[in-house]
């Protein structure tokens, strides 16, 4: 155990951590690691039974955890998740936007979210935007907080004229477009959120970890979930030391796709995003 981890155990974080997609793979491993560091972990997943299983595991190991069930393929449910967490925990120390959808078993098959949006765009990008914005107040209330977006080294610019990827669809490119958008979102909000004491970073945990997402795509894993977890914890440690607006390739500071830093592209993507999430905003009465 490192000196940092021993210190974290001695001084448990005062505000909880929400980890989306915490019932399997990287999210589950990260939930365990955070609980070991003394965090109260808010375990998000789509399946109530799986959430309960992870919560029971963390509690059995001496940790503190609570389940939160929501399907992030629905932006209204993403917004409602944010409202529930904010109501239950007016102060939030950490949000890890980890839940995601890979290329799928058939990369030629274009799938839709419950809102009728291209599925990878919706789950990997739009839902994190909705959730991050909905939780800004409790993150601000923590005094010092972090948002960590789980990104990918694979990034392809979003086509602003076909944001829903209706032409010449490819599942892997849909995935890399969504991760480009998530990285651009990280850099777009970092300076503004830093004024509220909220650091915002993005990390590519590892190449082709041994997760369901990778196996479904028919790819032989290159890395372990343990390696990915270590990279995420490194990014969190960097954030705790004040890093914000950064992109990490595993445990190294790196550069995301060059266009993710473009102010023009960020502005255009923000405008498109606002249009897409507006129905969820109106339905839930959410004010960003």
From TrEMBL:
- Region annotation (Disordered) maps to 1-22
Keywords, in A-Z order = Oxidoreductase
Gene3D superfamilies assigned to the protein according to its UniProt record, in alphabetical order: NAD(P)-binding Rossmann-like Domain
GO CC list? membrane
Which InterPro entries would you find in this protein's record?
Answer: NAD(P)-bd_dom_sf, SDR_fam
State a single Pfam family of this protein: adh_short
Family as reported in the entry's similarity comment: Belongs to the short-chain dehydrogenases/reductases (SDR) family.
What is this protein identified as?
SDR family NAD(P)-dependent oxidoreductase
Q: Which organism is it from?
A: Streptomyces aquilus
């Amino acid at each position: 155990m490192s000196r940092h981890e021993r210190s974290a155990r001695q001084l448990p974080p005062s505000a909880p951590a929400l980890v989306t997609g915490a019932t399997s793979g990287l999210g589950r491993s990260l939930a365990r690691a955070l609980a070991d560091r003394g965090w109260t972990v808010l375990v998000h997943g789509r399946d109530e039974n799986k959430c309960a299983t992870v919560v029971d595991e963390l509690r059995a190991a001496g940790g503190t955890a609570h389940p939160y069930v929501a399907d992030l393929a629905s932006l209204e449910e993403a917004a409602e998740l944010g409202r529930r967490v904010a109501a239950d925990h007016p102060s939030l120390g950490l949000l890890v936007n980890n839940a995601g959808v890979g290329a799928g078993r058939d990369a030629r098959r274009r799938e839709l979210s419950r809102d009728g949006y291209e599925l990878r765009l919706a789950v990997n990008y739009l839902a994190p935007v909705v959730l991050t914005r909905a939780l800004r107040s409790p993150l601000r209330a923590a005094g010092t907080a972090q948002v960590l977006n789980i990104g990918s080294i694979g990034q392809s610019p979003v086509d602003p004229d076909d944001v829903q990827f209706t032409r010449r669809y490819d599942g892997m490119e849909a995935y890399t477009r969504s991760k480009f958008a998530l990285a651009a979102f990280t850099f777009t909000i970092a300076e503004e959120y830093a004024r509220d004491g909220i650091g915002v970073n993005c990390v590519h945990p590892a190449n082709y970890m041994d997760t369901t997402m990778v196996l479904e795509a028919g790819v032989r894993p290159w890395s372990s979930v343990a390696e990915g977890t270590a990279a995420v914890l490194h990014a969190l440690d960097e954030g705790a030391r004040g890093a914000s607006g950064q992109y990490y390739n595993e445990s190294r500071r790196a550069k995301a796709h060059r266009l993710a830093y473009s102010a023009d592209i960020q502005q255009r993507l923000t405008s498109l995003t606002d249009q897409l999430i507006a129905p969820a905003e109106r339905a839930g009465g959410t004010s960003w």
